[in-house]
Specification:
Radius of gyration: 22 Å
Shape: globular
Number of helices: 12
CATH architecture of the largest domain: 3-Layer(aba) Sandwich
Helix content: 25-40%
Order of helices and strands: HEHHHEHHEHEHEHEHEEEEEEEHH
Strand order of the largest sheet: 3-2-1-4-5-6
CATH class of the largest domain: Alpha Beta
Structural class: alpha/beta
Distance between the termini: 40 Å
Length: about 350
Amino acid sequence: MTSSDSTRVGANVSRGPDVDATFSPERTALLIIDPVNDFLSEGGAAWDLTKGTVQKNDVVPNLRRLIEGARERGIPVLFGPMAYTEEDYADERWQRRSGINRIMFERKMFLAGTWGADFHPDLRPLATETVLLPHKGSDVFETDLPEHLRRLGTTQLVIAGMTANVCCESTGRHATEHGYDVTFVWDAIGAENLPAYEASIRVNYPLIANAVMSVDEFLDAIHPAGTVDAAVQPGDTVRGSDHGEIGQVERVESAGEAGGFLVVPRGMIFEKDTYIPLDAVVKRSGTTVFINVPKLVVGYMPWNEPPTAQAQQAKRGPSRADVQQLYGSRSPTGDSGS
């Protein structure tokens, strides 16, 4: 994909004024990255590295349940494999481009046409499902994925597979930058070691995506557009984008110029009542709502009192028309710098 093609991706994402709080089959796609034997099967070229997290998280059974559940609910499933040929190494010199490419080269991982590069027997795509062109680097978004997402009318991309800190994370970052609402399924993802997995799930995903959900939470959140009232209700459980539980909703104020808020009362976690803007709520699954701020950061947010219209306006910053001199300038203060 050329840089000009990449630039056009975001412009073609049809988005409403708000992020969808549930996953409608009409606008959601499930991307399964590298569900292949080298990662997921005993005897695979990387199994000695990945087996710890794959077995700990029951990644293969969870991926199978995720894929089958998505199919049953009408969510399109796309498969993003990786494969290398002699030309990739002899001509393109992929083994010299990055540390991960050197590792894959030396360990003979994902060699095209081999058992290791083939799909795990429990995770094979159906004949009617999309298998993307193989990715060579760590970013599936650099394949024909954007074309298929546009074809499907996708605005919400749900990611699972391998590995947490490389291909899953790179693809999620790229998709977010181009306007897609990204969700990661934490118990259907593995990595080459536990620290790498935890860093992605607990630290990076919560900042680059809207939600980190379990297989069950994602499947429970799939509903045809307009069939479910996703409004926040008293008694709902609130989770952060890192999947951390923040508390229970005590009350909801949906009117007013400030746009409304929910209240999580002080308790074991927070010393004061927490007033969370309703537009921070991005997902609902059953009686759980997810906000797009990690639990670990909520205490640092300016949410100790009900939001006002004036405070909300101040967060938006100045009008672009008022700061035209900044565009192209080297100084964020507006000075010429000379």
